[in-house]
Design brief:
The protein is α/β, with parallel strands linked by helices. The chain has a domain of 151 residues: 3-Layer(aba) Sandwich (Rossmann fold). The chain is 28% helix and 23% strand. Helix 2 crosses helix 4. It binds S-adenosyl-L-homocysteine. S-adenosyl-L-homocysteine binds next to strand 2, helix 4 and strand 4.
């Protein structure tokens, strides 16, 4: 993974108590560094056990600020701070209908499920066969049976469940895919890393009406490339 130093695989040694302590410390760090503010996102990050979305040989590194390899071509679980970075920018909240492009480990979808609640909806799309199986197993094992996990090309969104209040793309796009803007509700928001090579711009798009929107850059980020029709 270009630009990140991934620690070596090893046999896991940490206990549930170690992970709980590290999770609480991580949340405190994210708040202190300005990544995390909203009560419901804080609650979700304290609840969802990130280590359970990580292959055993990398589990002990669950709360390090690095993306970690998961099954699949170039698939990763993103680094911890990227989830509040994306979800705070989106203003993800209770009742939202949410689409994630790039399910990866399923961790981002599980967090989103906790945030939008049972009256909201989470749809997540994964293109890679192995990553899809991994996300599917993780979500099933943890009881997230009401997350709609789709195996397919999310660069064109997922029209059967549109329109969405919020959309999050977790792979780097050449530009914001038009089908995603279309599948967003008026006043809806979308975040996506845009660009290639060493870093990308995390772009926030806010839809003002059915056919007008504005965009701004939130941050510099580093993501794996988006595949598919509107990818690279
Ligand atoms: N959100 C994930 C991390 C995603 S890593 C998590 O929480 O773990 C990016 C993922 O996007 C990879 O698994 C990659 O296979 C997937 N991806 C790339 N192009 C895609 C596309 N067109 N549609 C759906 N998924 C895609």
């Amino acid at each position: 993974m270009l630009g990140w130093v991934i620690p070596p695989p090893k046999k896991p040694e940490k206990t549930q108590d170690d992970f709980l302590r590290e999770r609480k410390e991580k949340v405190r760090w994210l708040i202190e560094h300005g990544f995390l503010r909203s009560k419901s996102i804080i609650k979700a990050m304290l609840k969802v056990r990130r280590e359970q979305f990580i292959p055993e040989v990398y589990q002990d590194y669950a709360y390090l600020e690095v993306p970690l390899p998961i099954p699949g071509r170039e698939s990763t679980i993103s680094c911890p701070h990227s989830y509040p970075l994306f979800y705070e920018a989106l203003g993800l909240k209770k009742n939202d209908s949410f689409l994630e492009v790039g399910a990866g480990s399923g961790y981002g979808a599980a967090l989103a499920r906790e945030i939008v609640g049972v009256s909201g909806k989470v749809v997540t799309v994964e293109i890679d066969d192995e990553a899809y199986e991994f996300a599917s197993k993780n979500l099933r094992d943890l009881g997230y049976t009401d997350i709609i996990l789709i195996h397919g090309d999310g660069s064109v969104g997922y029209s059967p469940e549109m329109p969405y209040d919020k959309i999050c793309v977790t792979a780097a796009c050449p530009k914001i895919p038009e089908p995603l803007t279309y599948q967003l509700k008026p006043l809806g928001k979308l975040v996506a890393p845009v660009g290639y090579l060493a870093t990308q711009d995390l772009v926030l798009l806010e839809k003002e009406s059915e056919s007008t929107w504005k965009t701004r850059i939130v941050e510099k980020v580093l993501y794996v490339p988006l595949r598919g029709k509107c990818g690279w």
